[in-house]
Backbone:
């Protein structure tokens, strides 16, 4: 992505961002579906992300979308396939915002989801967008992520999740 202007991290030139957080995907429903029959197991892996929530913050008109997508992996040594669900949070502002603004939103989301899951959640990726151009922010993170424990988390409906995000941000 080309540099916005000389204002760098504070230049308001970005239109949206997509975040993933280590330790968050276990909190959301799986993107794929398993059906167990007596003689076979059928795993359906959708090509498109599964939308969990999509809403706008009324006063700022910032749009937030929570999605889960299946990631299919294999390696040279082991040709078998492994699928896992990856949750992502997309934030789109009605007017261009700065990289600093999107980083602050990511930090607030990281804190909120750590609180809701009852474990440590760490921002894994941050993709930023300006129109058709995109970039990936790489930062060194310290600390460790605790394993997800369903007994220590807050379970909520999609509407309750939306309200928590609106209040927190």
Residues:
């Amino acid at each position: 992505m080309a540099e916005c202007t000389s204002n760098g991290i504070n230049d308001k030139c970005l239109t949206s961002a997509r975040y993933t957080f280590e330790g968050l995907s276990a909190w959301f429903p799986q993107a794929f579906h398993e059906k167990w029959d007596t003689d076979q197991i059928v795993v359906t892996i959708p090509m498109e992300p599964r939308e969990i929530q999509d809403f706008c913050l009324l006063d700022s008109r910032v749009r937030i979308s929570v999605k889960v997508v299946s990631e299919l992996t294999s390696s040279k040594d082991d040709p078998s396939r492994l699928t896992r669900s990856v949750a992502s949070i997309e934030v789109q502002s009605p007017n261009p915002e700065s990289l600093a603004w999107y980083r602050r939103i990511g930090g607030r989301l990281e804190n909120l989801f750590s609180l809701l899951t009852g474990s440590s959640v760490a921002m894994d990726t941050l993709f930023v967008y300006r129109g058709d151009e995109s970039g990936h922010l790489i930062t060194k993170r310290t600390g460790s992520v605790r394993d997800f424990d369903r007994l220590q988390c807050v379970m909520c409906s999609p509407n309750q999740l939306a309200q928590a995000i609106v209040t927190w941000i």
Notes: The two ends are 27 Å apart (CA to CA). The longest strand covers residues 82-97.
